[in-house]
Specification:
Elements lengths: L4 E5 L8 E5 L2 H9 L5 E4 L5 E6 L4 H10 L6 H19 L7
Antiparallel strand pairs: 1-2, 2-4, 3-4
Length: 99
């Protein structure tokens, strides 16, 4: 099974700089709360990846999440998670997360 997150060169995938790709919703939600804006892509099997453009703070935010040092208000995190869920459903052609 491939890792849930990885560094990838996104050139040719719509991004002009190296970036970070993950399918980990919790990590993507945290990064969204830190101001990183992902683009979403889906495979033909329906798996969604979150593609983040490289920024000066991206590596430290990823490290904070993985070390357990990441702190975010629960309501802000939940809003980010719901926003990503809505984007996933829109990408897949559904509207389940309208509430």
């Amino acid at each position: 099974m491939p890792p849930v997150s990885q560094r990838e060169n996104l050139v040719g995938q719509g991004e002009a700089t190296p970036g970070f790709v993950t399918d980990h919703l919790a990590l993507a939600s945290y990064l969204l709360t830190r101001g990183h804006r992902p683009s979403l892509s889906a495979t033909n099997t329906g798996k969604v990846s979150f593609c983040f453009t490289e920024t000066p703070d991206l590596d430290s935010d990823i490290a904070a999440f993985h070390s357990g040092a990441a702190l975010v208000e629960p309501n802000i995190y939940d809003a980010a998670r719901l926003a990503l869920r809505r984007q996933i459903e829109e990408l897949k052609g559904g509207g389940r997360w309208d509430r």
